[in-house]
Specification:
By secondary structure, the protein is α/β, with parallel strands linked by helices. Helix content is 35%, strand content 24%. The chain has 10 helices and 8 strands. An 8-stranded mixed sheet has the order 1-4-3-2-5-6-8-7, with helices on both faces. Helix 6 crosses helix 8. The radius of gyration is 19 Å and the shape is globular.
Length: 270
Amino acid sequence: MLITPNLSSASAYKRQLAKRFDRAASSYDAYAQFQLDVLNRLLPCFPDSPTHTIMDLGTGTGLALPSLMTKCAPNHCVALDLSPAMLAVSRARMSDDYPIHYVCADAETFPFAASSFDVIFSSLAIQWCLQPERLFRSLFTASRHEGRLVFSTLLEGSMPELSTAWSGVDGREHVHQYITEETLKKQLLDASWQIESLSVERVDMWFDSPDAAVASLKKVGASLISTQKPQAISPSTWKAFLQQYEKQRQVKGIPLSYQVAFVVARKQVS
């Protein structure tokens, strides 16, 4: 079943984000090496407790769904994403025999029913939220007693290579601003989650050229920042950026690094 969206009330940022991911849906899997790397590091964090109902928040093209369905064998799964085109790819990936409901919605505003999920899973989606603290409170309500929130997200210090390159061009901010580890912990605790584990890992990716590094972002729809309205970049400015980025070349190639948080939190109600 596919539940379609109503983005008319969504912020301009969220509408633009949905469009970016829509355009990237057909190319996503071919360029998602970083996303797969993070997913494979996150899956072992999954709890061994029975999982009857699960949500994959920000499912994208459904890369996690085969593993989640095999590992958990849930009676019910909600695959939620902001992008209709991404969900279409996800739905085509999975057999209709699986008990998956595809929901196209903004997780920050979706009215989740209370005590619905044993596990809420999310890989590299929460960093796109404008108010993650609000989302964490909503997910706490949506979780059952002893339910888990298992997710990965990007933290401050991600993609410094891009900031360094742009600083030599125009000095403007071109990289999405991510929260700190301390802020993430506080947001979870303020939403009443008990943090079972939280680790931060640096993930390094290497590319043949600056163009290839940037393509790894654009082709998965991850090039939008929330702090500024989209602005056109002139060919001369873009060329200058690529030249600055090329100066960071190392033996392995052009670097692009991320700070990734891997989190397992539990709902306990006294």
